[in-house]
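Two entries, shown back to back:
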Amino acid sequence: MDHVKPSVVFSRCLGFEACRYNGNIIQEQAVEHLKPFVEIETVCPEVEIGLGIPRDPIRLIGDPSSPSLVQPTTGLDLTSRMQAFAKHRLGSLHIPDGFILKYGSPSCGPREVKCYVNEKRGAASTKTHGMFGGAVVEQFPNCVIEDEGRLKNFDVRQHFLTRLFMQARFRELQETPSMKHLIRFHARHKLLFMAYNQSQMRVLGRIVANPDKQPLAMLLERYAEGLQEAFARAPRRVSAINVLMHALGYVSDFLSTTEKAFFLDSLEQYRSGHVPLSVPTSLIRSWILRFDVEYLEDQFYFEPYPQTLVEVLDSGKGRTL
């Protein structure tokens, strides 16, 4: 299956340049695996506002909803400089499909960043977003945004990759819009929508049906909003089971009683948490190929992102079995 290359903005320290405050570089496996499959742009807000490598650490202080960005050892208040940089840098971006930003960074972190009461060592802290990372979240609400820390989690990574490549496919549709392309896009994602959010699948279906004969530009705008709602949360176990049972209906006439029983048993094993979803899914995929089921072959549910990105030797941390 061919996949569009998503456009992704990375924090530069994540395997691209030794630009951390301490002069280090972060080598993260999930980022390294993804690099060949995406169009890359990098950013290091701290270096790009004029701080050196290495440099004294910076921190967020004050009200978490509107913090200041300071360098305690020098007394520098970098708030205005970082805000101006974020506005300019993000304003110059061609809208990307996603961001992978540095976890916990007072500049890049999109979430879970410490904000201190004051500049003193040991001061109490709460959590907010980094100053640049928060601007990313605000300016690109429809982009897929994660930090490399959360991508260590199997389920978070799978959800991120699914959304990222779906977003890239929809962006390609928007670049060459037509009713024919929208219908095709919707048809190929139907099982994926079913797995994520069945009610939104029906909403998207009604948009594509276009009973009110709305112009294509308006349809695409409504469809984009519906996509964000459909993929807002990772799919539930019961939804995956429903999709696989639906897919079974396309091949069941070709299967022996023993094969059906084996599949249903693997599905029950998944339901009870004894095997991963990949076990019953792989069975269905093998039958799709064996019986040349064109409709299912075309479904992105069975390969939502390049198969190479499925790690054989995954730690399993955070994995939903």
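entry 2 starts here
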Amino acid sequence: MSKSKEHIGFRKLSFVTLVAVYFLILVGGIVRSTGSGMGCPDWPKCFGSLVPPTHVSELPEDYKEYYANYRHEKNVRFARYLEYLGMPQKADQILNDESILKEADFNVYKTWTEYVNRLVGAIIGLLIFATMIGSISYFRVDRRVTFISIFTFMLVGFQGWIGSIVVSTNLMPWMITLHMVLALVIVLLLIYINFRIRKESLKSASNDNKKIIVILTVICLVTMAIQIVLGTQVREAIDAVAADLSFTFRDTWVSKTGISFLIHRSFSLLILGLHGWLLYVILKNKHQSAIVKNIGKYVVLLIVIEIISGVIMAYFSIPPFIQPMHLLFSTLIFGILYYMYLVVINSKHKLVTS
């Protein structure tokens, strides 16, 4: 593969973009943990301005009614799409749930927290656009890089629209989950792009037990994806409990989430066991490549940290600063696992399966 200045620059840009997306996930977690998701009742502007207000006096007296109507009109259009896609129950839920149109009091801290989140998102959108433009230099070398970069940019546009629906539906749980899943897909696409443009340096990535490592990695990826979705359900349950208790008695929130938390907690032990098994298979072969060994070690370490952060949340009244870190660790584990899968599955060496 050519090592032109364009290609070197694109490699750096694609990596920076990937890191930036992970940073956005962290910022999104902060927005969620601080309850700032509805800090801006409209999208893409915030209270109708490019720069949001700093005091409620800057808003008209009927701002709650105005933005409730604004969101209702958007929800009516979205409900039509859902009906067209064969989801009439979801459409009815959006149109008939009165809590969706409940407008929160203006809170300058929540408004600016959400505003910063949107600024970071806009910057990352520009980075992904730049990645798409930069991928053109790879068209003659690896067209897949260019096509996937274009698709990623299109998906980011769709993700932005979904983000606007998350706001218009007043943080409807299944919309938040969809928003999170799309973010993970974007991460995987960017990881794949980064792998494609660096894979020439990874030809000797693995030289033993390829088959079992691939199988175990796929199982770990699937279980980790399930765990992330379970985590969003626990988060939804906690949000509901917190709202019912008017955000008081924080130390009781976890105990009131019911079965969703118990499943999420128990599943973490299964995940630790599976990844421990994967690491054992990797390390028991002395001819295994260093990159696969190191990835396996990092993943298990991150899982231990992830479990510890979960324990802290469960037994120390869900400290707000831990919540976004818990989300970040889970997405990092998922991304690193996917990269290891790419490294192993694309190995060009004849590997031993015994």
